[in-house]
Design goal:
Layout lengths: L1 H11 L3 E8 L5 E8 L11 H18 L6 E6 L10 H6 L4 E10 L2 E11 L3 E7 L9 E7 L3 E6 L4
Parallel strand pairs: 2-3
Antiparallel strand pairs: 1-2, 4-5, 4-8, 5-6, 6-7
Helix pairs in contact: 1-2
Length: 159
């Protein structure tokens, strides 16, 4: 219900919904909304002003439709630099970026794989993983991570 209210508000601001979460009950309820720019606008950062405008308009829309009949706290933010990667569009959008993958089953002997996103083929995300000896002449390896085995994927912050 909340998502149905939030998405058109964000569209009017040229933003899209990454995630909406409703937690708690009663006056301690929290509505957490995570926003970003559409894929066709690249990776332009969501600004504090964007979050403020979205917060104000989402708050008005929620108050008008009243999906939660009691007091709640509304939180609006960007996904952050280490944002989660949730759907196939994210893998395409962040091709070439470094990411951390938590796997259900070990890959390369580990349940956490860090590598650069190369491509998506429908059932796997292909990641270039630096060999442990890469700093001493080791080569990078292209690894296919099964999407069904990825528990969590996040961008890594690069400096």
């Amino acid at each position: 219900m909340v998502q149905r209210i939030v998405e058109p508000v964000l569209a009017s601001l040229g933003l899209v919904l990454v995630n909406v979460e409703v937690r708690g009950r009663g006056p301690k309820s929290l509505i957490r909304v995570v926003i970003e720019r559409p894929v066709d606008q690249g990776e332009g950062a969501v600004t504090v002003a964007d979050c403020e405008r979205a917060h104000m308009l989402i708050g008005h829309a929620l108050d008008a439709e009243d999906p939660i009949p009691h007091a709640y706290l509304l939180e609006v933010s960007s996904p952050g630099l280490d944002r989660p990667i949730r759907d196939p569009g994210d893998y395409e959008r962040f091709r070439g970026r470094l990411a951390r993958f938590k796997m259900a089953q070990p890959m390369l002997g580990q349940t956490v794989v860090i590598g650069r996103i190369q491509k998506l083929d429908g059932t796997h995300v292909w990641v270039e993983v630096q060999a442990a000896k890469a700093n001493r002449g080791g080569a990078a390896t292209l690894v296919a991570l099964p999407l069904a085995e990825i528990l969590e994927a996040r961008l890594e912050v690069e400096f």
